[in-house]
Amino acid sequence: MTTSCAFPSRWFWTILCILSLVGSVSADEAARDSGADSGSRTTSFEEVKSGRFEKLDTNLGTLTSDSGVASVSARHAHSGRQALHLAGGEKTVVRLQLPDAVDTSGTLSFRAERWTQRAPFTFRVEKKAGDDWTEIFRGDDVVRVGRSFLSHVIVPINDDSVEQLRFTCTSPADAGILIDDLTIGPAEPQKVTNVEVVPFSLPALVGTQSSSLVKLKVEVTGILDPISIVELRARVDGAQQIESLQVGDGEPVELADNAVTTLRTSQPLEQGENIVWLRCRLREDANIDRQVGATIERVKFSNGETVELDSPIQRQRMGVAMRQHGDDDVHTYRIPGLATTNRGTLIGVYDIRHRSARDLPGDIDVGMSRSTDGGRTWEPMKTIIDMGGDPKWKYDGVGDPAVLVDRNTGTIWVAGTWSHGDRAWRGSGQGLAPEETGQLMLVRSDDDGLTWSQPINITEQIKRPQWCFILQGPGKGITMRDGTIVFAAQYQDPPEQQRLPHSTIIYSKDHGETWHVGTGAFDDTTEAQVVEVEPGVLMLNCRYNRDSARVVMTTRDMGKTWQKHPTSELALIEPQACMASLIDADREVGRDVGGWLLFSNPNSLRGRNHITIKASADRGSTWPKQHQVLLDEGNGAGYSCMTMIDEKTVGILYEGSQAQLTFQRIPLSDIVSPIGSTRNSPDE
């Protein structure tokens, strides 16, 4: 008996398309790995089996593992699906034996990713011609940490007698370096293959030497007869805010008020991808409510080539570099808090880390900056909490501040953690005395931040003796509808419970005369922020030390019991534990401005970058993409704190890529308006 089956034609064509795609990918990878088109040889490690190896034949030659642990990883790659992993440890060494057909008169290039920021880390490349090994690349401070193979390494070999290359890495165990797209190519004349303006988001700041306006990418092949950029024609928007322009690190050129300018320069180009920045210096009186922007219309090269570009002007938001490395002879400013007083004054608080960037214990005081014009200008810094400076007690450092305005009395409260000796996150112990445990200190101002009280110690009121540590937010606190003032806080369990931290709250119902503490909201949470989402209902948004997500808890009884919010660990991401800011716009200004909750943090899973403000119209249940504004895509320390300056303007103080503490004014409408309305409007 025979049967017939009609095979649906749509399935036939689907399978044919899949097979065609697979075939195309394999062909592309084969062409790339052989380097047939360019005279170069490449391996992306796609042609070999994954796993640890002692000897491995690749398209580029034979790899031999001389010491340590070398493997081909199937979990990480820059292109394709695999990459070479030198696991570090005391020393991992891999030699590459080159066949005679490989031309070593040119360059070695590869993509690299360092796996850890921890020391020690060394990475060297050597070449062997005859009996001698010669170092040709030292990547200790060059290869970057990051999951995207951020380093494109290009090393001149310039020696056609080279027989072997040697790669050596030292690092903490099981870390090391990843290498992909390993290529050796002949020496060829330089050629420009691509020129484009690349979008980016970085704030332009008053008070810095320069701010980025245009990111120009120029891709080049070859190393002979080097080419340079000799002239750029730029179109500038917001010229009245700009004092001067410069190309790369070149000399600043004063900018006239006209929109189009020609800049002569000399920017040498290297094989691979070149990034050239057009930068500006803002005028001291620049209006930070405006935006500045530019584009490149024409690029001239030293070989006589000219490239015309048709890219729109990219505008950057403006702000103020409120605190920078070296200001007032201070090494580092960190941990921002920000609040608006009842009189409309802005109070910014932060760590003054005098000697280094390290956390407590150390020579750290709490600083305060004050603005009476909405953050456009700031008064000189004041130190408002200083617990001493005796080196015997590790300078009696105090830090991690949080600021709170009592809306009923007008009193401004600032909380800080005092470490008398090593009584901070790791050294604080059980008990209540300064010699035993960290102390929670308060200062207050009753004259709008002009003068401040002596420190007030509330440790005995809020700390259980068996706990190892208790401290505030940091960031800011709130005044509830019934007049209760609340700081977010965190405490550590006793040693027998592994000092496990828990976010909680501390609060006062009598305007700061006495203080109380809640119970732990969730295991292994810290650095929370608090808002009142309904009358008497507090929401605690917490840093979570076990995942790249925010924990969100609520309480209806002032922290006696806690309930998990439906969005907890789901709605908001963070880069593997980082502080964030959360405010209720209505409660901040004391009237209905739409019921928005605002949240800010590094909107990233891979690093403290992409500082973003997000808005929720449903009390934190959703945070739609159309209500998000990116402020700073660069890498920084990542902490932030927001305030409503007035009913139309959000103020944010954050640890950004362009200054240690950046302040910006953001129209609320830019965050909450639908895409396509007034967001990113041009300077007028």
Automatic annotation (TrEMBL):
It catalyses: Hydrolysis of alpha-(2->3)-, alpha-(2->6)-, alpha-(2->8)- glycosidic linkages of terminal sialic acid residues in oligosaccharides, glycoproteins, glycolipids, colominic acid and synthetic substrates. GO terms for biological process: ganglioside catabolic process; oligosaccharide catabolic process. It is an enzyme of class 3 (hydrolase). The keyword Signal applies. Its EC number is 3.2.1.18. One of its GO terms (cellular component) is cytoplasm. Residues 362-646 form the Sialidase domain. Residues 1-27 form the signal peptide. The keyword Transferase does not apply. It comes from the Bacteria. One of its GO terms (molecular function) is exo-alpha-sialidase activity. Belongs to the glycosyl hydrolase 33 family. This is exo-alpha-sialidase. The lineage of its organism: Bacteria, Pseudomonadati, Planctomycetota, Planctomycetia, Pirellulales.
